[in-house]
Amino acid sequence: MGKRKAARKPTGPKKDKTTLPKTFECLFCSRNDAVQVKLDQKNGMGYLNCKVCNMRFESTINSLTAPVDLYHDWIDANDEVNFPQQKKKRVEDRPPASDEED
Ligand SMILES: [Zn+2]
Hints:
Blueprint: E1 23-24, E2 35-40, E3 45-50, E4 56-60, H1 67-82
Antiparallel strand pairs: 1-2, 2-3, 3-4
This protein binds zinc ion.
Region (Disordered): 83-102
GO molecular function: RNA polymerase II complex binding; translation elongation factor activity; zinc ion binding
Family: Belongs to the ELOF1 family.
C-alpha cells in the first residue's frame, strides 16, 4: 500500500507586503525605480539618489517620515528650482468687503 502524495500547493515567491516602496521614478532621467531612498533615523536625515543619473538630494526627516515623503520633498525642492515664478503665492482670504448699509 503506497501512501498517496498530498497534492502540493503551488507556492509562489513570498512578497512582503508590509515593505514600503523605496524606489521611485526619477524626475531627471524619468527612469522608473531609479531613485532610491535611505532614511537615517539616528541622524534625522534622509538621502535620495538616482542610480541612473546620480542625482542626489538630502533632507531632514523625523520618525514619521516615509521614503515617499522624502521623494515628495525632492519634487517640491525641484519645483522651486525649476519654476521659481510658479512659487505658491500666499493668497489672503479676505472677507468680502461689506458695503456700509443704511
Ligand atoms: Zn535619474
